[in-house]
Amino acid sequence: MTLALTDPPRHKQLRNIVAQWFTAPAVRSLDRDMHNAVRNTLMKVAELGECDFLHDVSGRLSMYVIGYMMGIPEQDHEAIFRWTNEAFEAHVSLAQHPELMTYFIDLMDQRIAEPADDLVSALVGGTIDDEPLTEEEVLLNCENLVGATENGRLSIAGGMQAFLEYPDQWQRLQEDPGLLSGAIEEILRWTSSAAHSMRSVTTPHVMHGQQLEAGDWVAVWIPSANRDESVFHEPDRFDIGRTPNRHLALGNGEHVCLGSALARSQMRILFSELLARYHIEPNGPARKVRSIAVRGPEALPIRISPR
Ligand code: HEM
């Protein structure tokens, strides 16, 4: 029932219900709020002098942004942040977190009674072939949208980790902030936080000499594709000036990441602020997420101080 797991032609119709929230202009309209959220978050952690970058910076920011888009009142962000963290850390689907799902049911009921200008209301008011979505579909797509942000937090933190491991690239970016857009693409390639994408074959096809039959399942292992030595020069080098950089970190085709513009924009705002105002260094070993679905640091301890 979720966008990510729906086939065409229904997929496009479902995607159209929420797509306008994720276009480049829609994401640009969030710039000011994202800037404020980034500044506040960084000021708080810099006062403490140290933090877990994954939990306290990238996780909080990703949650704040999707919470804002979904119309979750700010006083509830902390609880949503805690519940999503609990589910992510236990590697279970958000749908298995009872408090989170109860919260979404209440939110959905409120928006049915009184629609507002947010993503939950868009789902509640959305129709496909003149039929409204069922409550279950609304609920599962809320869960899908919040769950998808795990990639955002992992790739942002993975990017920070890459800069800590390759400080020459951080310094290069500091000296030439014009490299930031390219650096974001390299972070996406390098971190490849979505580990795989799966499709079922619809017609018989031969690929690299391998016969595929209708109904076969094919998995694209994105981190492997993004280190393909026949495509990328020195793929195991983190190079913010890499060009061309035709990575597949955000998928491709019908299901290409709906949150692409949002993910890039969050990185642009956060890394600009960090580069301009803060000094960062590692504060202990990072821990990796153990999962076949996502990749990145589960914990990234850093020391942070104003420059
Ligand atoms: C850098 C961070 C991100 C990465 C690496 C990433 C990666 C991906 C990938 C690889 C897919 C395609 C899956 C497939 O082909 O089966 C995808 C789909 C999707 N992403 Fe992202 N994503 C990121 C951030 C986000 C964010 C912030 C959101 C916001 C809610 C989001 C929402 C979605 C949704 C809803 C889909 C399903 C689209 C569809 O099936 O039509 N993603 N993402």
TrEMBL record:
SUPFAM superfamilies: Cytochrome P450
Cofactor: heme
Record key words, sorted: Heme, Iron, Metal-binding, Monooxygenase, Oxidoreductase
Pfam families hit by this protein: p450
Record-linked PANTHER family: BIOTIN BIOSYNTHESIS CYTOCHROME P450 (PTHR46696:SF4), P450, PUTATIVE (EUROFUNG)-RELATED (PTHR46696)
Family: Belongs to the cytochrome P450 family.
Name of the protein: Cytochrome P450
Provenance organism: Nocardia suismassiliense
